[in-house]
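Q: Got a minute? One more chain.
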Amino acid sequence: MTLASLERGRRYIIETIDSSDPDVQRLMVLGLVEGTEVELASAAIGGDPLEIRMFGNSISLRLEHARLFGVTPAGDGG
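A: Always. Here it is, folded:
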């Protein structure tokens, strides 16, 4: 599962990152790193770009980059 396949209303933890793309490295500087909890805030018509919420802020990213971040659902206890 990747950031490109998030369901609204659920939280996820970033588990893996394909950091070979320089654009992905810039997104990592913004906080998209392993262990970060994220959720889907919204998506444009057609689904691209996505708005991802983390640390109380939102960032937009294209599907091609979202597919490079592997996620797992966050636990229900938080």
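A: The two ends are 21 Å apart (CA to CA).
Q: Perfect, thanks.
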